[in-house]
Amino acid sequence: MLDRPLLSVPDAALEDLRARLRAARLPRAWPGVAPWAAGTEPAELRRLVTYWAEGFDWRAREAELNALPSHFADIDGTPVHYLRFDAERADALPLVLTHGWPSSVLELVPLARRLAEPTRHGGEPRDAFTVIVPSLPGYAFSPPRPAPGGPQQTHEVWHRLMREHLGFARYGAHGGDLGAGITARLAEAYPEEVTGIHVLAVPAPAEPRDLDAEERAYLDEVARWQRSEGGYQHEQSTRPLTLSPALADSPAGLLAWLVEKYRAWTDGGGGPGAGLSDDYVLTQASLYWFTDTISTSFLPYWEYDQGLTRRVTRAPVPAGVAVFPADLTRPPRRWAERTLDVARYTVMPRGGHFAAWEEPELLAEDLRAFFRERRGTAAS
Length: 380
Fold this sequence. Notes:
Elements: H1 11-22, H2 42-54, H3 58-66, E1 70-75, E2 78-85, E3 93-98, H4 109-116, E4 129-134, H5 154-165, E5 171-175, H6 178-189, E6 194-199, H7 213-229, H8 231-238, H9 240-249, H10 251-264, H11 278-291, H12 299-305, E7 315-323, H13 333-337, E8 340-347, H14 355-358, H15 360-371
Parallel strand pairs: 3-4, 3-5, 5-6, 6-7, 7-8
Antiparallel strand pairs: 1-2, 2-4
Helix pairs in contact: 1-2, 4-15, 5-6, 8-12, 9-10, 10-11
C-alpha cells in the first residue's frame, strides 16, 4: 500500500472547479429537436453541472479512492499505478484486468472484489484470483509512456509488471474496449505465460474473407454505429490536440463529452445510464479533471490511427468472449474466431459497455467459468 494518499486535491483546486461550474455558459436546447437526438441534452447537462458544483461530495469519493489497495511499479523509469486485490486462497491464478475509455480503474473495482473473494459474493474458494488492475498510461494515476509507439507498448508494460515486478510465472488477462486490444496483444506476444484471455470486444481481422450472413450483418451494424455514434472516435483519433484544450479548460465541456457516452453505452438509458449513478459519473469526470488527463486519455486512439500500435494477427491461447446487449458492437462468434481461439462465447442477458460496473456479478461468473479449466499454480 502507498504510504501517502493516492489523490489529495487541494481546497483551492476544488473551489476552482466549483467556480468554473457556477460560471459555465451552457447551451440552450434546440427547438423542435428530441432530447439526446443531437448529443448531450442541455437540460440534463445543466442538472449535472449544478449537482457537481453544489451537491457532489468529492471528499467522500476521494477518501474511497484512497482506501483502494494502490501500488506503483517502476517500468524503465515510468511509474505504473495499479490496484492489487489478493485472493482468498494462496495458490490462486493471477489475473490482470484492463479498463478502457472513458473510464479508470474505478470501473473494475466491483468485479475485482468478486474475483478475489468469491465466497463473499456467493462463489467458491476454488474460483479466487489475485487481481491486478493497472491504470492505463495517461489515465488518472499512470503517466503516459515516454513516447508514442515504440517497442514498449502497453501490453509489454503489463507483461513486465506481471512477470518481473510481481513475479507471476503465468497469469490470465481480461479487458473491454481499449483493454480488450491490450489483452489480445498480451496473448499473441506471450502465449507461454498467458494461460487464457477473456474479452468484451475482439480485434478486427486484417482482410476478412468468406463472410457468412451473420458476419455481414455485424459489419453493417458497425458501419451504422460509426455513422451515428463514431464522431468522438474520429476526432480523438485524428485531431485530439485540437479538442483537448476545450475539455481541459471547461469542466462543463468535459462532462458533456463524457456523459453522452455514459448514457448511450449503458443498458436501459435514462439519466447518465441505467447502471451508472450521478456520483459515479461525476467521480470519473472529477478524476479526469483533477489529474488533467483527458488529453492523454486520447493517445491510444491517435497511436492506433497512426499505425503505431501493434495489430493483432492471431492470439493463440484459449479465449472467452462475453457480448453484452448494450455494448458498442456485438461481434458474432465466427468473427471472433478469425483472430481469437474462442473456447467460450457468452451472450449476456443485460448490460452495456461498462459491464464491470453495471453487471459485475454476471461478468465475474463468466470469468470464473472460463478460467476453471485453465487454472494452475502461479507463484508470486
